[in-house]
Amino acid sequence: MQHLHPIEQRVLSAINDDGLLKALADLVSIPSLDGTTAENEAQEAVAALLQSQSMTVDRWEIDLPRLYAHPDCSWEVPRERALGVVGILGEDRGGRSLIFNGHVDVVPAGDRRLWHSDPWQATIVNGRVYGRGALDMKGGLCCAIFAARAIAAAGVRLRGRLVIQSVIGEEDGGLGTLAAILRGHTADAAIVAEPTELKVAPAQAGAHNFRLTVYGAAAHGCVREEGVSAIEKFAPLHQAIIALERTRNERLRAADSSGLFSRYRTPNAICIGVVRAGEWASSEAEQLVAEGRYGIGVGEDPAIARTELEQTVAAAAAQDPWLRDHPPMLEWWGGRFDPASTPMDSPVVQTLAACDQAVRGTPATFEGMTYGADMRLLVNVGGIPTVLYGPGDVRNAHRPNESVAIVDLQTATRVLALTALRFCGYDEE
User: Fold this and answer.
1) Which residue spans of the chain are classified as CATH 3.40.630.10?
2) Closest CA to 171 of 330, 36, 57
3) Which intervals hold domain Peptidase M20 dimerisation (predicted)?
């Protein structure tokens, strides 16, 4: 630890590492998939945890019809009910206010046979916590909560508000964070505790979901040449999309003067993750539907970027007589993660970087994140300077045996606590 005031040392000493791991284990045990009752169950658990930490808690039923009508709302999974949960520590007494944001929803566990342990039970092996959501991002959320808890437990009075936003629906579009913003839970700055490998990330790339439908003509498999395979007709479209990915990333990398994405060869990836085709094994497939995510660069106009994909698909279809007469349909649907960034000289970026260095003993590393996150809602809708910072590597997310290192959880909690103290200000008694 470097250059810590005695009060700062007292707060960091008050961090309850065992309590953090227990809270994380409790949350991992709740299979809070998007749109399920467990998503709200996880929110209830967080609300109870915040209340036990002496925080003022706002728990409310989100008005889904009203939220769906908002132009910045996007989602993929239908919901009948949704809960918002926000905890507040301190009050405005001349200091700055700060948001810690984290989501409780998780992606499906997938094939259980590929997991070494129960995905819905936190398992500690070799200093790592395994389980769905341990990394993405119940771990980061617990770090934020226990950073706030340490400040309260140490009896330190902040001069500004520290706000904990626990949100749903991040994985399928971000409606939980949008709901919190629209309810008035804003601040002078925000930190989203997504996994960044403890790197300070003042930029987040974007990603929009798309659906491509390709039409063929059915025929009995024994005379398949009398039909048209939608699967075969998808092939040249897919090749054109892959070529577009290469061209776009070369262009966007050349235009990136920040260097925040220099580690990545393809920071704005185009990924087709779902392909469905055909109705019967012995029938020529008359339709194929492909769904994917379309990477959008920081500073890029999403509307113009989307047009580029639309034109690419249309141009490829025009080269094939069948596709020219039966044009494929491209739709934009579901999650809409616009890119976002915060200036490097923003107070929240500089304060976080200084606190990371104070805790870890080496200069902070700055890097852009290539995944979509709720940062873009806080920045683009809320007008709140925001940075991503949290424990673990996103490469271990959305896959079997998701895990996060305990030492990363401990470090992130200390950095977040110190950042809240220095950004919001505190009484020195």
Assistant:
1) 6-203+339-424
2) 36
3) 204-320
- Report, as an integer, the average pLDDT of 19-43: 98
pLDDT level of residue 254 (50, 70, 90 thresholds): confident
In the residue annotation, 301 being an active-site residue is answered as no
The CATH 3.30.70.360 domain(s) of the chain lie at 207-336
CA–CA separation, 403 and 409 (whole Å): 11
CATH topology of domain 207-336: Alpha-Beta Plaits (3.30.70)
136, 170, 374, 402: the active-site residue: 170
374 part of the active site: no
Catalytic residue among 105, 286, 374, 402: 105
Measure the CA–CA gap between 164 and 98, rounded to whole angstroms.
Answer: 9
Residue at token pair 């770090």: 143
Please give the backbone phi and psi of residue 296, each rounded to the nearest 5 degrees, phi first.
-125, 130
The whole-angstrom separation of Cα 298 and Cα 204 is: 7
Strand order in the sheet with 123-125: 123-125, 128-130, 403-405
Q: What whole-number distance in Å separates Cα of residue 49 and Cα of residue 146?
A: 10
The fold of 6-203+339-424 is Aminopeptidase (3.40.630)
d(CA 288, CA 399): 26
Strand order in the sheet with 287-296: 270-277, 287-296, 206-215, 329-337
Whether the Cβ atoms of residue 162 and residue 423 lie closer than 8 Å to each other? no
